[in-house]
Design a protein that fits this description.
InterPro entries: GGGP/HepGP_synthase_I, GGGP/HepGP_synthase_sf, GGGP_HepGP_synthase. It is built from 9 helices and 8 strands. It is of the alpha/beta class and about 240 residues long. The two termini are about 25 Å apart.
């Protein structure tokens, strides 16, 4: 399984991807089988696991349980080095390029190398851009950085392009968990137009209409988390088509 190559091939074939983000601190293991049954029946293509703050060993326990219940690729979406587990398929090696906190640009990455050496995880270098959404997010609190203003699209677009020129393989526009406002269609369109790498969009997407708009604007992979935590019936709107 080569997850980055699969994403690149999907982009070439104009297939849209959907990742369900599961937070180890919010998902109860006893609720997981029912949740995964709904997820497996949906159009989801990837499972991301992680959170801004997660209890020690919680990520590994959850990843092991998830893998027993699905064939979908499981990707770590880490908030910290402690969330690395060898049981996942891959890790998004996130660099918070919207901020200037050296820990989240390179420091945490250096600290993670010893752990990563002991795994066979596929490591995917990913630019992470936090976009203002109308409220303070957990990412802001943890990283001590401010989001980029949605009123200044050029700064967001230029930051994304700079990340690509640095050699990052994926670009992630993030409004943040529980965002009031998702990333705007204008920002998605203009960012996609400047990039030649896949574009991920997440945060604040709670309806099928918002999901479709993100795809139509150029998102190659959309991440949804809070919407499923708040309303598992949302899976009903995203069921696979049966013939």
């Amino acid at each position: 399984m080569n997850i980055l190559n699969d994403i690149l091939n999907s982009v070439k074939e104009k297939q849209k991807l959907l990742a369900v983000l599961i937070d180890p601190d919010k998902m109860k293991l006893e609720s997981l089988p029912d949740f995964m049954q709904k997820l497996n029946a949906s159009i989801a293509t990837h499972i991301f696991v992680g959170g801004s703050t997660v209890k020690d060993k919680a990520t590994e326990r959850l990843v092991v349980e998830i893998k027993a219940l699905t064939e979908l690729p499981v990707v770590i979406f880490p908030g910290d080095v402690s969330q690395i587990t060898a049981y996942a398929h891959a890790i998004l090696f996130l660099s918070l390029i919207s901020g200037r906190n050296a820990d989240y640009l390179i420091g945490k990455h250096v600290a993670s190398v010893s752990k990563l050496r002991a795994t066979n995880l596929e490591v995917i270098p990913t630019g992470y851009i936090l976009v203002e959404n109308g409220k303070e997010t957990a990412v802001q609190k943890v990283t001590g950085t401010q989001p980029m203003s949605y009123t200044n699209p050029k700064q967001i677009i230029d930051t994304a392009k700079a990340g690509e020129l640095l050699g990052l393989k994926l670009m992630y526009l993030e409004a943040g968990s529980g965002a009031i406002l998702p990333v705007s269609t204008e920002i998605i369109k203009r960012t996609k137009a400047t990039l030649s790498i896949p574009l991920i969009v997440g945060g604040g997407i709670r309806t099928k209409e918002q999901l479709d708009k993100a795809y139509q604007s150029g998102a190659d992979l959309v991440v949804i988390g809070t919407a499923f935590e708040e309303d598992k019936a949302f899976f009903n709107e995203l069921k696979k088509e049966t013939h």
